[in-house]
Amino acid sequence: MALDTENTALSYDAPEKDLYEMGEIPPMGYVPKQMYAWAIRKEREGEPNKAMLQEVVDVPELDSNEVLVLVMAAGVNYNGVWAGLGVPISMFDVHKQPYHIAGSDASGIVWAVGDKVTRWKVGDEVVIHCNQDDGDDEHCNGGDPMFSNSQRIWGYETPDGSFSQFTRVQAQQLMPRPKHLTWEESACYTLTLATAYRMLFGHEPHDLKPGQNVLVWGASGGLGSYAIQLINTAGANAIGVISDESKRDFVMGLGAKGVINRNDFNCWGQLPTVNTPEYNDWLKEARKFGKAIWEITGKGVNVDMVFEHPGEKTFPVSSLVCKKGGMVVICAGTSGFNCTFDVRYMWMHQKRLQGSHFAHLKQASAANNLMVERRLDPCMSEVFPWAELPDAHMKMLRNEHKPGNMSVLVQAPRTGLRTLGDVLEAGKS
Asked: Does residue 357 come out as left (phi exceeding 0), alpha (psi in the -120 to 50 range) or beta?
């Protein structure tokens, strides 16, 4: 069933052209031949400010179950940094295309639909979740689509992400846009929110329950800010970890029960060899960190779950401080991929190590509904103009970005706009 939107009734004059300038809106449903995009090419892989260059490329053609979206704003995520650097693997070895358009978050307007698309129509306002699959195996039909061999992340493992005037997605990637949010607020949250939702609620029997305690790494970042809010909404207790004391009030304001500054401890990095003097020093410091958790949860009360994503620097401590029978759930390795831990604490205390990767549509939709219902804040921290898209990724690479989530304006000419009518009116000034 298509959504009712004001855009389908909106009338405006616009010429038909092969290429439109940034912020220029074509006639509703008219698809030009070309578009502007921030493209990465194999020969210039490296830091984002060198890897990403603005180019004119062809507008992608649609298959029968695909949708073309006019992008109003796009979210900035770490996979854009990885795509530029070509690590942990080069995306050109995955999709084999001559250029890569990153971007795995977007808000925009349905501009064209394939002939088998029935749930969406031209003019619908949408946000996009980033999971794609072929839909034709047992995991996609009665199982978990995230386990399908065809599962891939749009804008990372596909060459046609959101850092362009138009983007091509599968129809099942679309979700209704929260109308109370601006285009840039709508664009910043889906990837991190849905990832956090699956980590916390998607791995039974260790799905989050009221009253439980969760240690959240990077509590002021995009993932962490949603984890704190989801934990609080579920009636559980979030213990946030920060690296900058200036972020404490932000994390507490999201609903955390307590905050720990990891710079007060010296137990980060790969685990020293077990039973060496270096290991004993590490263990003493790691237990000191554990006691800091107890100051929030109560003496002897370890966390039920650890919300992991830094990886290499934090994993040894995460696996230690998790309670007996608890779970360490991890979705990334932003500090490195060589995770180490003392397996004795893992098997003797019967802890679970769980990998987690984005979310399927039902989970993404449940998370999005919380945003539509205004139960969550998008925590948008910074908005960048189109021309500064690589700079936004450089700030993320250098960990210089503000707490929360970042967006980049694409077709929306300025911040604060909520409808296509707003965009058209702003374009006149």
From this structure: beta
